[in-house]
Amino acid sequence: RGESASVSALRRLPDGSTAFECSRPESPDRPEPLFESAAPTRVLESRSSRVTIAVFDLPSKGFNDPTPAAPVGGNTGTTLGQQRLNAVRFAADIWAAALDSPVEIRIGVGFISTNCTPDFTILGAAQIPEGFLDFPGAEFTGTWYPAALANRRAGRDLHPDDGTLASQEIAIGYNDLGRPACTEPVTWYYGLDGEHGDKIDLVRLTLHEIGHGLGFAPYASPFTGAEFQGHPDVFERRVLDEATGKHWHEMTDAERAASATNAPNVVWDGPAVTAAAPAVLRRGVPVLAAAGVLSGDREAGPADFGPAPTAAGISGPLAAASADGCSPLANGSELAGKVAFADLARLPCLWITQAFNFQKAGAIAVLLADYQDSGLPQRVTIVSEDPGVAVPTASITKADGASLRAALASRAVTVSLRTDFSRFEGVSASGRVRLYAPRLFDGSAIGHFDFNAQPPLLMNPFQGEPGETQSLDLTPAALRDIGWYPDSAAAAPRSPLRRPRGTRVEPQRK
Questions:
Q1: How far apart are CA 271 and CA 452, in angstroms?
Q2: Element holding 87 (H helix, E strand)
Q3: N or C: which end of the chain has fewer CB within 10 A?
């Protein structure tokens, strides 16, 4: 009980910016004390199937808060509690329409007292109170299944509702934000339209956490690699390290712990996700070639500004810039007609400023090397208005940057930058969608798709990114891969249509 948990939090970074991330606590909290109330005070079914929301808040608190509220974003609730419950029910309705379980799925919710400081604010915490193994209908013996999936496969409720949190298939606690101690003046958005601006979208966060509760989460610890009570979980069986050729359930604890930081080699090995990816992800990945320096085509990070490299690409001599490009170059003649090469700058210098100043110096393209060993090149995001960047810009890994810099010290280097339209963003060369396995470990590892996948996926570890929607995207396909939809294998689960969203201007952070 309570071994699989996730925490969504807002963290202030050293440069003063903030990151909204979902991670796993090293030692999951025990499930029973998550809410103040020991038993539900309100129960509400979703509109389209047997997904039940059980409110564990005390009277006049959280989802029972009677404070008057004005309608917002299609949410017509007249009190704060009603609006909160409407938003959670809206998310539950989206999931209910995509699931085919004949067994009721119970989700316990409530507002909780949790950490809130100027540098770290927990937004919400989700738990899978119970898991099961070796039940009738299990596809694999000796393998943990989250309660909702175990019930689906067994065709019955393995722990009938007894009024306790443990008998709920999923538990989600939300922080009552807006206190002065919290990171910045952060507040919830209760609208149903996704137009949350700088607020935290309660609908999308709930969709994300329900996705974890339905099974998109490992029981095995990414911290130590240890499996719960020595048994694999069904999620592990789809985690493949392409560098070792092993799935997580085939590894030792030490091998799993090493794999958790082995980007870009860790992927989701499931036929449903692999088949669905081309219809969801953006086509076209920038690749860099440098004959005699780098072996083959190297994946580069795309820029959210300026033109993308064409399929034919652009080639030219590489020139290391004598300055970082954060200010106009006093003498940039060494870049004229060449591909400018520098390190990604740190705030307050903007990456778009670097590209623009190198362009003004005559560069025909810009390569920016990562300053940390992430295994994958960063997406070069825009955090201000585009001053008019008209040359292709891309990032490369720290390791590739070091190889190019070493070669330039002794000879001329020619590079080419093009877009490979046979590949999709967030997908490995094998066609499998990558999982988040950062070289610099954090608790988000393995239990999320990689953040380089575009458009931003629901099970991305970093929320609040430009282009987010309330689509379930690849998550139902991942659930199919672990054993959902056994009676409708030929039918694709339903997912709401994407709604376009205006571009936001926040930096992407790792």
A1: 20
A2: helix 80-98
A3: N
pLDDT tens for each residue of 462-498: 877 777 889 999 999 999 999 999 764 444 434 333 3
Cα–Cα dist 477/458, whole Å: 12
Element (H, E) at 93: helix 80-98
Residue bearing the bigger pLDDT, 186 or 358: 358
Check if the beta carbon of residue 127 is closer than 8 Å to that of residue 171.
yes
pLDDT at 328 over 80: yes
Return the pLDDT at 499. 31
State how far the Cα of 425 lies from the Cα of 388, in Å rounded to an integer. 25
Each residue of 42-84: pLDDT tens digit? 677 665 567 999 998 989 999 999 999 999 999 999 999 999 9
Angstrom distances, CA of residue 19 to CA of 9, 13, 177, 289, 397? 8, 7, 16, 33, 21
| Between 152 and 441, residue with greater pLDDT | 152
Give the burial string for 137-175 (b: 16+ CB within 10 Å, else e). Answer: bbebeebbbbbbbbbbbbeebbbeeeebbbbbbbbbbbb
Q: Which one, of 89, 81, 42, 83, lies nearest residue 65 by Cα?
A: 81
Give the DSSP H/E element, type plus range, for residue 353: helix 351-360
Residue keyed to tokens 């995207």? 473
99: number of Cβ within 10 Å: 22
Tokens linked to 331: 């003498």
- Residue range 275-308, pLDDT digits in tens: 999 999 999 999 999 999 999 999 999 998 999 9
Q: In Å, how far are 189, 345, 364 from 20, measured between CA atoms?
A: 14, 22, 35
Q: In this structure, are residues 222 and 445 in contact, taking their beta carbons and an 8 Å threshold? A: yes
- What is residue 481's three-state secondary structure? helix
DSSP bridge pairs for 246: 241
CB neighbours of residue 296 within 10 Å: 8
